[in-house]
Amino acid sequence: MAIATIKNISVLVLDNEQKIANLVKDVLVALSFPDRLVFTASDGYEGLEILRKTPIDLIITDWELHPNEKYSKLVKSAIIRTRWGDFPPTNGANFVDCLRTSSKSPNRFIPVIMLTGPTQSNHIYYARDCGVNEILMKPINAADLARRIIAIADHPRDFIVSPNYRGPDRRRKVGNLPEGMEERRKVDMKIFKNTTIAS
């Protein structure tokens, strides 16, 4: 991805902790994303407000994304209903599911990178099934974040709409992978095979 392209991309970072959101923003700015096009939100309601008012090209959300108290008294008409309950839900994956499935979604097709803790491998499957494009284990670093953004920009996946799923095609293409990706695929598959899914 060229720096000229990056300078036109707007990003929304969602995290309950403003310090973490600002840290992710600083990493993005260090990667040449313009400061004026990187927005932060402290929960799903605030994120949705930004999405409705501002053209956003990419979302980076934390798994742990809980509603803030200031939004708890909103009228029911301000709440989006999803198959998971009232929006905003109690984690970032359900926020993504809301974006993908709700008739009130401001952008069903927006690419999403999910940040999650390294010991919570079951979150990977759940986030994937909610329509997340890429998942990044914490603690994050600039190189890993850049790789995920490049993967979304340079190797976009078809968007699937079916009765049980809306989001990027979960099947990664086999063969003809970019240099270095085959080894990463083997590591990813080893992690998945050694993971126990929480019931």
Outline the secondary-structure elements.
Blueprint: H1 3-6, E1 11-14, H2 18-30, E2 38-41, H3 44-53, E3 58-62, E4 81-82, E5 85-86, H4 92-101, E6 112-116, H5 122-130, E7 134-137, H6 142-154, E8 159-161, E9 166-168, H7 181-193
Parallel strand pairs: 1-2, 1-3, 3-6, 6-7
Antiparallel strand pairs: 4-5, 8-9
Helix pairs in contact: 4-5
Molecular structure report:
The chain is an alpha/beta fold. It has one domain (3-171): Rossmann fold, CATH 3.40.50.2300. 36% of the residues lie in helices and 16% in strands. It has seven helices and nine strands; from the N terminus they run αβαβαβββαβαβαββα. The chain has helices at residues 3-6, 18-30, 44-53, 92-101, 122-130, 142-154, 181-193; strands spanning 11-14, 38-41, 58-62, 81-82, 85-86, 112-116, 134-137, 159-161, 166-168. The strands form three sheets. The protein has a five-stranded parallel β-sheet, with helices on both faces. Strands 4-5 form a two-stranded antiparallel ribbon. α2 links the parallel β1 and β2 (38-41). α4 runs parallel beside α5 (122-130). The longest helix is centred in the first third of the chain and has 13 residues, at 18-30. The chain is globular. Mean pLDDT is 78; it is low at 187-199.
